[in-house]
Design brief:
4 domains; alpha+beta; 36% strand; 10 helices; 19% helix; Pdz3 Domain; Thrombin, subunit H
Length: 495
């Protein structure tokens, strides 16, 4: 009896299981009479049940072996030797104290004794051959301060390289070795690349020559601090020390970038790598070969990002463009009539979504060329033409601080005659922040000592004028502030 009950339970359990999974998996058990039809379906108690075969899903993973085999011989290992001067302290980086420094005597008497002269340095990097006669591209920081550069090929041949030129702003250097019939890479177009597309890097991380790593393009046109002239390609390709200067390939085996930087808190790979687009690098290469330096265009303005509060203050529909926070005296921008508070919306027909979009566009133009700019000036759009100057210094950028809620909380005073003479400000411009209490101004980043030049585009030189402007401005204010020698806009929100 127990055996029969157990068999019945098994019979029922199996039948129930078939209800749930039998039709999908082709279960052959049935408690009723079932026969197959000509079209492959089953007939159970006169009802046809369609049999659907399981669909096979296959995902093809990329194969990088062919690219690595074909392009690997054109990638080189670069070893650099040089020297670093030792200061009075006997360590690299310690400069000799200035004799005019009030602490000069202290340092002179109590300096730590150490070796004088210079200390040898060594470095490793990567590069790639771009022509059969031995022209090589790498990073400028790889060969910086180098006394000797040795290039090693995959066939173990070594050559002493000559540095033809190096451009620090774009971080591109051109080397030349005395060789012929060398394998060389094919140059691609990074503008055709897409976010999410597979890419591979070949280089010498930690000295491991011709190492291949792969990933995808994470973003395009990334701007990094102090690197305003390069719209970087961001990838998640594993890049480590020694990869610098190596090529970034697309799936067609074309170079689309030079691996240049990583974002890391440990000094090693953490998922964020940045490559110089190869079209930017090749423009630098051509000028370095022809002239030994790179000539760049220049406007002569200090710019900053436009956030939502600033956009509202200036009457813009959305936060786009590059906000001009100051204009250099005698610069091309000043001659063209550009003013502080103007927002550059387009440059030669190309829209400026972020302030970081502008410097590369200006830099790539030769000095003396004409450019057309669409500018948002006093809540109206206008178009101007101007002649591009020559860059002799980095275009600086300034980022506004975040805003918050609260009272304004400012204690202000007029400039003294001495302060006005020192700052060269006109009489109708400038209020000094004497003290600041907790409130939206402090939260926005206004500091004691700042000089408020204008509010929402109107100059202020008295507390009364400032108060009247605040009363009629509403909840959004754009303060134009002078901080030391720098000028910037700070948005303040009043609730």
């Amino acid at each position: 009896m127990k055996l029969n009950k157990l068999a019945l339970n098994i019979h029922r359990s199996f039948a129930i299981a078939c209800v749930f999974i039998g039709l999908a998996s082709g279960c052959s058990y049935a408690s009723h009479d079932t026969s197959a039809t000509a079209n492959g379906s089953q007939k159970s108690d006169g009802v046809e049940v369609a049999q659907t075969p399981a669909q096979k899903v296959s995902v093809a993973l990329p194969d990088f072996s062919e690219i690595a085999a074909q392009q690997g011989p054109a990638v080189v290992n670069i070893s650099v030797s040089g020297s670093v001067k030792l200061g009075t302290q006997g360590f690299p980086g310690f400069a000799e104290p200035d004799p005019n420094d009030p602490f000069y005597e202290f340092f002179r008497r109590f300096q730590i004794p150490g070796p004088q002269g210079s200390q040898p340095t060594h470095g490793l990097g990567s590069g790639f051959i771009i022509s059969a006669d031995g022209v090589i591209l790498t990073n400028a920081h790889v060969v910086a301060n180098a006394d000797e550069v040795i290039v090693k090929l995959t066939d173990k041949r070594e050559f002493k390289a000559k540095v033809m030129g190096a451009d620090k702003p774009s971080d591109v250097a051109v080397l030349k070795i005395d060789a012929k019939d060398l394998p060389f890479v094919k140059i691609g177009d990074p503008k055709k690349s897409r976010v999410g597309e597979w890419v591979i890097a070949i280089g010498s991380p930690f000295g491991f020559e011709n190492s291949v790593t792969a990933g995808i393009i994470s973003a395009k046109s990334r701007s990094l601090p102090d690197e305003g002239y390069v719209p970087f390609l961001q990838t998640d390709v594993a890049i480590n020390p020694g990869n610098s200067g190596g090529p970034l390939f697309n799936m067609s085996g074309e170079v689309i970038g030079i691996n240049s930087q990583i974002y890391s808190r440990s000094g090693g790979y953490q998922g964020l790598s940045f490559a110089i687009p190869i079209d930017v690098a090749m423009k630098s290469e051509a000028q370095l070969i022809d002239h030994g330096k790179v000539n760049r265009g220049r406007l002569g303005v200090l710019i900053q990002e436009v956030n939502q509060d600033l956009a509202t203050s200036f009457g813009l529909e959305k936060p786009v463009g590059a906000l001009v926070s100051s204009v250099e005296k005698g610069s091309p921008a000043e001659h063209a009539g550009i003013e502080s508070g103007d927002v550059i919306l387009k440059f030669n027909g190309k829209e400026i979504f972020h302030s970081s979009d502008l410097p590369p566009l200006v830099a790539e133009l030769p000095p003396g060329s004409e450019a057309s700019l669409e500018i948002w000036h006093k809540k109206r759009s206008r178009t101007i033409s101007m002649k591009i100057g020559e860059m002799n210094a980095t275009i600086a950028t300034a980022e506004p601080e975040n805003t918050n809620k609260g009272k304004l909380g400012l204690a202000l005073r007029q400039l003294t005659a001495e302060e006005r003479a020192k700052t060269e400000l006109p009489k109708d411009e400038g209020l000094v922040v004497e003290h600041i209490a907790e409130g939206p101004a402090a939260q926005a980043g206004i500091r004691p000592g700042d000089i408020i030049l204008s509010v929402n585009g109107e100059k202020v030189a008295s507390v009364e004028k400032l108060r009247s402007l605040i009363e009629k401005a509403g909840k959004r204010l754009a303060f134009h502030v002078m901080r030391g020698e720098m000028k910037l806009f700070i948005a303040i929100k009043i609730e």
